[in-house]
Design goal:
Structural class: alpha/beta
Radius of gyration: 20 Å
CATH superfamily of the largest domain: Vaccinia Virus protein VP39
Strand content: 5-15%
Distance between the termini: 39 Å
CATH class of the largest domain: Alpha Beta
CATH architecture of the largest domain: 3-Layer(aba) Sandwich
Strand order of the largest sheet: 3-2-1-4-5-7-6
Number of helices: 14
Shape: globular
Number of domains: 2
Helix content: 40-55%
C-alpha cells in the first residue's frame, strides 16, 4: 500500500479516538492509510468505502492482514447508510488520492501526458466529454465556479477553438497559452485551477460532499466523531457551514414571532480548522493546503 501518505493522520486518529468494539467508516478509502491506523489503534471494525475499483482491489491485502476486521465497499460515500446502520466515527479525506494523481492514464494530472479522463469511478462522462461538448457559457461557469479561475471566459474560448482535445498535456498547453506569459511566473501552475474545475465537475465532488455529510450525520451514534480533511476553499466552506449550521442554535430576531429553534446535533471539536505541521508539509508537500474539521454527534 505504498505511494500514498494519509494527510494529518495523527490528528485524525486523535480526533476519532478509536476504541475497542467500535465501528468506524473510512468514507474515502484510497490507499487505506486511515483505515490501517484506526485498526491498529483499537480492536475495532472499519468499513472502507471508495468509488474507485482500483482502491478496492488494492485493499484486499489489508482485509487479510486484519483478520476480517476491515470490510470494503465499492461506491460513493454519500451512500454509506446503505452499507452500515450505525458508526462510532466517520473520516472523509476529500479530493484525489496520490494513486490517482500518479497514474497518467487516469488523466488527473497535467504533469505527465494521459487521456482526459478524471473519473474517480470507471463510469460516466469524462473530462474529454466536458471539454469537447460544453458551450462557452457552460465551460466558463465550470472553470469559474469550481476552479475559481478569473480567466475562465478566455480559457473557455481557447479550449473551444482547439477542439477536439484528447490529452492532458494538450489541454495544459492550451490553458497556459490562454493565461499568457505572466501566469508562468506564479507559484501555481497556470492549468491547476482548470484541471481542478473539470475534475470536480466530472465527479460531482461538491454535491457528493454535501450528501455525504448528511449521510454521516444519519449513521453516527451519540458521541461519534466526524473528521473531514479538505484541500481547497470550496470543500472547506461546505464542511464549515455544515458543522456550524448543525452545531449552533440561530439567534431569533426580537422583531419576528418566536419559533422553537432547532436543537443542535453536533458539537464542534476543532475551533476553526486544524492545518498540517510544518514538518508534515516538508515530508509531504501535497498536505500544504489541507484543513481538518471535527465535530461530535450529540444525543438525538
Amino acid at each position: 500500500m505504498s505511494g500514498h501518505a494519509p494527510v494529518m493522520l495523527e490528528e485524525v486518529i486523535a480526533a476519532l479516538a478509536p476504541r475497542d468494539g467500535g465501528i468506524y467508516v473510512d468514507g474515502t478509502f484510497g490507499g487505506g492509510g486511515y483505515s490501517k491506523a484506526i485498526l491498529e489503534a483499537a480492536d475495532c471494525q472499519v468499513l472502507g468505502i471508495d468509488r474507485d475499483p482500483d482502491a478496492i482491489a488494492r485493499g484486499q491485502a489489508l482485509i487479510a492482514h486484519f483478520g476480517g476486521r476491515l470490510t470494503l465497499a465499492e461506491g460513493e460515500f454519500s451512500h454509506m447508510g446503505s452499507f452500515i446502520q450505525a458508526s462510532d466515527g466517520v473520516v472523509l479525506d476529500l479530493g484525489v488520492s496520490s494513486f490517482q494523481f500518479d497514474q497518467p492514464e487516469r488523466g488527473f494530472s497535467f504533469r505527465e501526458d494521459g487521456p482526459l479522463d478524471m473519473r474517480m469511478s470507471r463510469s460516466g462522462e469524462t473530462a474529454a466529454d466536458v471539454v469537447n461538448s460544453a458551450d462557452h457559457g457552460t465551460l466558463a461557469r465550470i472553470l469559474s465556479r469550481f476552479g475559481e479561475e478569473k480567466n475562465a471566459s478566455r480559457i473557455a474560448r481557447a479550449i473551444i477553438a482547439a477542439r477536439p482535445i484528447t490529452g492532458t498535456a494538450e489541454l495544459a498547453r492550451i490553458v497556459c497559452e490562454a493565461q499568457g506569459p505572466a501566469a508562468l511566473r506564479h507559484a501555481i501552475h497556470p492549468a491547476t485551477r482548470t484541471f481542478q474545475a473539470l475534475r470536480i465537475q466530472v465527479n460531482d465532488e461538491l454535491g457528493e460532499l454535501e450528501r455525504g455529510l448528511e449521510a454521516a450525520l444519519t449513521i453516527l451514534k451519540t458521541a461519534g466523531r466526524l473528521a473531514v480533511v479538505s484541500f481547497h476553499s470550496l470543500e472547506d466552506r461546505i464542511v464549515k457551514q455544515f458543522m456550524v449550521g448543525h452545531g449552533t442554535t440561530p439567534h431569533a430576531s426580537r422583531h419576528l414571532p418566536q419559533v422553537a429553534a432547532p436543537r443542535p446535533v453536533l458539537k464542534l471539536i476543532t475551533r476553526g480548522s486544524q492545518i498540517p505541521s510544518p514538518q508534515e508539509i516538508a515530508r509531504n508537500p501535497r498536505a500544504r493546503s489541507a484543513k481538518l474539521r471535527v465535530a461530535e454527534r450529540l444525543a438525538a
